[in-house]
Amino acid sequence: MKEMNFLALAGGVGGAKLTDGLVRAVGAEQVTVIVNTADDFTLYGLHISPDVDTVMYTLAGVANSETGWGLADDTWENFGMFERYGSAPWFRLGDRDLATHLLRTEMMSGGATLSEVTRRLARRLKVPTLILPMSNDPVHTLIDTDKGALPFQEYFVKYHWQPIVRGLIYEGAAEAEPSPSVLRRIETADTIVICPSNPYLSIDPILALHSIHDALLNATAPIIAVTPIIGGEAVKGPAAKLMKELGVEPSAVEVARHYADFINGFVLDERDAGLRQAIEAMGVGVLVTDTLMTSSDDRARLACEIVTFADQLRPEKLGGCLLDQPKPSGSPQ
Ligand code: GDP
Q1: Pairing mode, strands 46-48 and 41-43
Q2: Is the pTM of this model over 0.90?
Q3: 240 CA distance to ligand 1 centroid (A)?
Q4: What's the CATH number for 6-324?
Q5: Over the range 272-309, which residues count as b (16 or more CB within 10 Å of their CB) and which as e?
Q6: Cβ(198) to ligand 1 under 6 A?
Q7: Running along the chain, 333 residues long, what does each successive block of 10 average in pLDDT?
Q8: What ligand 1 atom has the least distance to the C-alpha of 235?
Q9: 303 lines ligand 1 (CB under 6 A)
Q10: Is the separation of the CB atoms in 60 and 162 below 8 Å?
């Protein structure tokens, strides 16, 4: 098989799952992932980078697959102590997870950038895949809601994404530079995958960096987006609710339309097969398949299908997936 440069754009859970599938499908070193950093925030002086950590922990095989965030088998002793002090935080950090935030913050206080820190931490966790935070500059998603303007984590964690959303602002995005090598990776990629992440909360902050959006418009590689919406519902989280509140029908068609200016292919869930023509009418190729990733084999199978689909979207074939026959879902991981 030829060397391949797979590039994924990802938020947290949905992005991490498909990136993990791509790593299994084509090999860890053939994949680079650009991750949203507009959810980053500071708690007790610590730099928390939730999507970067979800991707890093998932690729390291140490993620908590039940919560979708944090580390597997973590403990919460620090939370009990906060409670004793009468100041229980609304954002909980696991005891082991704390080590990541403490180290990151210390390294950044010493002058390292977020991308340098991510590279060091990922190396220690034996993750060979290059994880690129979208930017080393601060970008913050601000959510305009019926309860006023809320920083992302307050909307998402403190208020459990219940406030009605009126609009979204990606503060700092206009001035932010992509982190080093992001633009080059887009230019030199063979295949670009927009993971089934939340289009508004996870992918749009990345696209809000104009040079990234321009690079995608000019990319020579096929760009394939995977739907996060199945049967009008999000698999997890606020994507469908948010679309309704923004006056957009929550459907895979609208997700495809959202990305239509730069994608060549769209992966539609088989439960929505009837929407195929509406997406093809946008001039976008469509792969219809099961996009639900409930096991690690599901992730690999979906990624393999995307590898094959990408080959159909370009003149020259690059070769298939490393896993010829992924095991059926439900088999031991
Ligand atoms: P977050 O930052 O942790 O919210 O994660 P993302 O934005 O990366 O992912 C959230 C999105 O992933 C949601 O809109 C989900 O609908 C979608 N998602 C999660 N799991 C799956 C899955 O197995 N299949 C598909 N198609 N979408 C998924």
Answers
A1: antiparallel
A2: yes
A3: 11
A4: 3.40.50.10680
A5: beebbebbeeeebbbbbbebebebbbbbbbbbbbbbeb
A6: yes
A7: 85 97 96 98 96 98 91 96 91 96 98 98 98 98 97 95 98 97 97 98 98 98 98 97 98 98 98 98 98 96 96 85 59 38
A8: 16
A9: no
A10: no
